[in-house]
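Researcher: Let's try something more involved. This one mixes different molecule types, so please make sure each is placed in the same coordinate frame as the others.
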Amino acid sequence: QSVLTQPPSASGTPGQGVSIFCSGSSSNTGRNSVTWYQHLPGTAPKLLIYSSNRRPSGVPDRFSGSKSGTSASLAISGLQSEDEADYYCAAWDDSLNGWVFGGGTKVTVL
Amino acid sequence: QVQLRESGPGLVKPSETLSLTCAVFGGSTNSYYWTWIRQPPGKGLEWIGYVKFTGSVSLHPSLKSRVTISLDTSKNQFSLKLSSVTAADTAVYFCARGLYPVWFDPWGQGILVTVSS
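Model: All components are placed in one shared frame. Result:
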């Protein structure tokens, strides 16, 4: 059971948008920023969003993040086939004094 | 471009010690937080702990009694030891460079370690 809650799956057709939500608590997402990772099994997970809404250089602006209260979301606009992957949210937890993750959301491009 | 690569045995017997090394290429271990994360089959990611560039360590409370993480700056690598393993420790183990509490980047591609006799 992951500390942060994500839906197990999301899907959309090419060109559509999809949003993934991540819910935590006051000790993690309520107090600290959220990070998002994209993971294709068998490869290294890739940093997509940090500080809840900032994109590292090289990440397309189709990916955007936001946070409100104890919930965060990752939005993907203009879905492309290469976006088919697992997406994980993460946040520092002040009670654990460590990082916590969501269970991951598998995005399927129909 | 910093790259990380995990290495170690892919099979460990129950009750023995799992030992992994993460080599860092294209960058120095003289800064950042060097982190281990794992993913059991079919499950989510779990933070194991980090060794800071200063040598200080922080570990997940549930694993603290069994985990050692160390840094060798001369070899530009860091290591994970997990003792008294059971089948529940079977997972893909990732190493990552961390900027706390902001991000992990980059990650290694992971190494599957199976605990089985």
